[in-house]
Design goal:
14% of the residues lie in helices and 43% in strands. The protein is built from three helices and seven strands; from the N terminus they run βααββββββα. A seven-stranded antiparallel beta sheet has the order 1-7-6-5-4-3-2. β3 and β4 form a beta hairpin. The protein starts with a strand and ends in a 7-residue tail after the last helix.
Amino acid sequence: MSYSIFHSFTIKAEKSEVFKAVSDPNHLINWWPLKCSGNPKVGELYNFNFTDKYDWYAKVERCKDNESIHFKMTESDDDWNPTTFGFDLATVNNGTKLDFPTLIGQNVMHILNIHHFVGHYCSTD
């Protein structure tokens, strides 16, 4: 059994800027992992380092510049390894619509565990 989480919201920015925020490691660290590396190309491996204990990897499954990027976890805690997630962008009147689907292949209660909270780092600086 799998479970889905779907976030959808609008950001007042150009699509190219939003794409950088969700695909460029130098921008990802501004809102999600503490450290990150990778290239936005199909088959490339990203490192999402949330802490030394949660130093995870994901493979780029799909990528189209300024449109979308999707990942599949390859090295993480067992409950997150089958997880896929991505970012789909569309231009709207007041900015860029960002859809953020996540498919989790384990018990939904794992969503509520510490990994969920460790994985949502956000800075207001």
